């Protein structure tokens, strides 16, 4: 069989590098009802890592640039009404090219997907838009917004033959550069230390608090995030704002300093494997969500953590 079966239902497409799944893989497969097509390098090993899949098709395509990869995968997906990709770097590169190859619309950055469209955040960053389309479509799915329950049985894996090399030219890849730990984009970071309004109090100004947080983040290999109150105050850039009106993240470890846990912030936080909250309020939502809640003054705890981890960290 040289396609993904005779069904017309949703399917997830995952780009695999060196046998590793992209961020958001299991959530995307779960949203697609357990069906997935894996393309790239060492795809069979990657298929065995999925916990939400019932059936997986694998195809070894190597590290093709996204235009050629889209051309190779499109014939395998023509019968699928909904094609889902995670909003990972490879997913963002491949999705528009795959939509063009399949001659269908792209719904980018979806929060949830249904048979006739997807729920998207509006251009103002504040409103939820139910985008409805007529006919098949391609969508990218934001990670960390839904559960990904583990299925009791491993998926059935079907290996497809490598596709023929397309004859048309495409941009080539000269090198793949990966960011050092802590310097990734927020939505790709496994560890995040984040600032809330409670961090810029007492002896610390907002700018000094962010400088300390950056030093601690560098020592822990963690990216630096913030709440909207912090970015609106100008302590740090808007690109670091986490939440439904900022960046949606899915870290393994999240350290929240002085963050109360407003719904807009928590809505973009996903489900961290480990959540640590430092806050003087023992009853705030972030304290309630935390795996480890430290009821203490956030600036004091951060300063002490910086002293222990980074002797040369900036002081106010």
Automatic annotation (TrEMBL):
Electron transfer flavoprotein alpha subunit C-terminal domain mapped to chain residues: 185-269
GO molecular function: electron transfer activity; flavin adenine dinucleotide binding
Gene Ontology BP, a term: fatty acid beta-oxidation using acyl-CoA dehydrogenase
Gene3D superfamilies associated with the record: HUPs (3.40.50.620), TPP-binding domain (3.40.50.1220)
Top-level taxonomic group: Bacteria
Protein's name in the database: Electron transfer flavoprotein alpha subunit C-terminal domain-containing protein
């Amino acid at each position: 069989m040289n396609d993904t079966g005779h069904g017309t239902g949703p399917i997830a497409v995952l780009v695999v590098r060196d046998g590793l799944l992209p961020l958001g893989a299991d959530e995307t497969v779960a949203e697609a009802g357990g069906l997935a097509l894996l393309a790239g390098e060492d795809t069979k090993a990657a298929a065995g890592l999925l916990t939400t899949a019932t059936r997986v098709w694998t195809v070894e395509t190597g590290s093709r640039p996204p235009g050629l990869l889209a051309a190779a995968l499109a014939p395998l997906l023509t019968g699928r009404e909904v094609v889902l990709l995670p909003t990972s770097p490879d997913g963002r590169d491949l999705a528009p090219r795959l939509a063009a190859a399949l001659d269908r619309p792209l719904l980018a950055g979806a929060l949830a997907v249904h048979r006739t469209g997807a729920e998207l955040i509006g251009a103002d960053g504040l409103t939820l838009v139910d985008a409805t389309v007529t006919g098949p479509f391609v969508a990218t799915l934001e990670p960390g917004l839904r559960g990904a329950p583990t299925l009791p049985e491993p998926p059935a894996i079907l290996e497809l033959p490598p596709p023929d090399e397309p004859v048309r030219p495409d941009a080539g890849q000269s090198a793949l550069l990966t960011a050092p730990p802590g310097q990734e984009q927020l939505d790709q970071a496994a560890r995040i230390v984040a600032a809330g309004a409670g961090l810029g109090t007492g002896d610390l100004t907002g700018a000094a608090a962010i400088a300390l947080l950056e030093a601690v983040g560098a020592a822990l290999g963690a990216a630096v995030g913030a709440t909207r109150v912090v970015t609106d105050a100008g302590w740090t850039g808007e690109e670091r704002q986490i939440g439904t009106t900022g960046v949606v993240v899915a870290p393994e470890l999240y350290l929240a300093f002085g963050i109360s846990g407003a719904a807009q912030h928590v809505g973009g936080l996903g489900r961290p494997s480990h959540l640590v909250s430092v806050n003087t309020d023992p009853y705030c939502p972030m304290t309630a969500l935390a795996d480890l809640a430290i009821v203490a003054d956030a600036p004091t705890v951060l300063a002490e953590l910086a002293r222990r981890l980074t002797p040369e960290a900036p002081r106010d």
